[in-house]
Specification:
CATH superfamily of the largest domain: Spore Coat Polysaccharide Biosynthesis Protein SpsA, Chain A
Distance between the termini: 54 Å
CATH topology of the largest domain: Spore Coat Polysaccharide Biosynthesis Protein SpsA, Chain A
Strand content: 15-25%
Number of helices: 10
Strand order of the largest sheet: 3-2-1-4-9-6-10-12-13
Order of helices and strands: EHEHEHEEHEEHEEHEEHHHEEH
Oligomer: single chain
Helix content: 25-40%
Length: about 300
């Protein structure tokens, strides 16, 4: 899809007619063990939103086709992958948008339980601007069993548990809602790794698309995984190295703190200079890191470090 000089061209649509709702799409992993439980919880919660979204699951991991058939979801098994078989994020977005029935798309991680406030927030953002990126942070909660979504008060009970036991996480976002055509050009990131969500923020800000943080209104429960990762070791993974190579350190520094607007009870309000101050802080931090790296390399290769004040 073509890009204008200043922003993506949202006047071009990939399907002749679209509906006014939202298409939620995600790429689940295998429905085995604890991941089978938390993914089922997440997807079941999406099916209970009103009006019910158009839901697309992508990929061919074990159990994906079966849950799509059981719950009446749409399934796209074929994706572009790396040499090692990992799905590519740009392929996920391209395939989902080409098949989407709705004018807006929502990329939601498959471990995120959503409530009706997600749809309510989307309705406000959608009518506010033609171009937008709606994002939200999560509440971590340990769920080890399939929740009883058949209960009349399933949402009230789950919310109460999240208030008692949940832990907010504000460093990243777990859902991204946008009008079709926004992410027309995207590097081939590997899904399930780092950097691509930061790139989403950078892309929107770079093309002057308003980024609306809906975290204060929307409860998005992230079901804590039963696996533990060593962060230092995970940074050495091939997928992480690949994604880092596709996004600069500046692009990877973007996150929820760079949101230009916030949804509150009274409506959508600007965050003023806060995101710009965040950029200044990151610029200073990255400049200092670059200076330290340059100094270390000079020492390593036998060259005297550049003189600094106070030396």
């Amino acid at each position: 899809m073509p890009m204008t000089a200043g922003c993506p061209d949202l006047s071009v649509q990939t399907t002749p007619t679209v509906e006014a709702g939202i298409t939620i799409f995600s790429c689940p992993r295998s429905f085995e063990g604890h991941f089978g439980i938390i993914q089922r919880n997440a997807i079941l919660s999406w099916t209970l939103l009103k009006p019910r979204p158009d839901i697309i699951l992508l990929g061919d991991d074990a159990g994906t086709a079966e849950i799509c058939e059981e719950l009446g979801l749409r399934h796209i098994p074929d994706l572009q992958r790396t040499e090692s078989g990992m799905p590519l994020v740009n392929s996920i977005f391209d395939r989902a948008e080409a098949a989407a029935k709705c004018e807006a798309l929502g990329y939601v991680n498959t471990d995120i339980v959503l409530f009706q406030d997600f749809i309510d927030a989307f309705a406000k953002v959608r009518t506010w601007k033609r171009r937008y990126l709606m994002i939200g942070c999560r509440m971590d909660l340990d769920l080890r069993v399939v929740w009883n979504f058949g209960a009349a008060d399933w949402d009230t009970q789950l919310r109460a548990r999240a208030e008692r036991e949940g832990a907010p996480m504000t460093l990243g976002a777990d859902y991204f809602v946008f009008p079709r055509g926004l992410f027309a050009q995207m590097p081939p990131f590997v899904v399930g790794s780092t950097s691509y969500d930061n790139w989403f923020f950078w892309f929107a800000r770079h093309y002057r698309v308003p980024v609306v943080d809906t975290s204060s209104i929307v409860l998005a429960i992230h079901q804590v995984h039963r696996t533990q990762h060593d962060w230092a070791e995970s940074l050495k993974a091939p997928a992480v190295r690949r994604n880092h190579a596709l996004a600069s350190a500046w692009q990877r520094s973007y996150g929820p703190a760079d949101s230009t607007h916030e949804l509150v009870r009274q409506g959508i309000k600007t965050r003023g200079i806060a995101p710009y101050l965040n950029r200044l802080r990151w610029a200073a931090s990255l400049a200092a890191a670059s200076a330290r790296s340059s100094r270390s390399l000079r020492i390593l290769f036998g060259k005297p470090p550049l003189a600094t004040s106070g030396d």
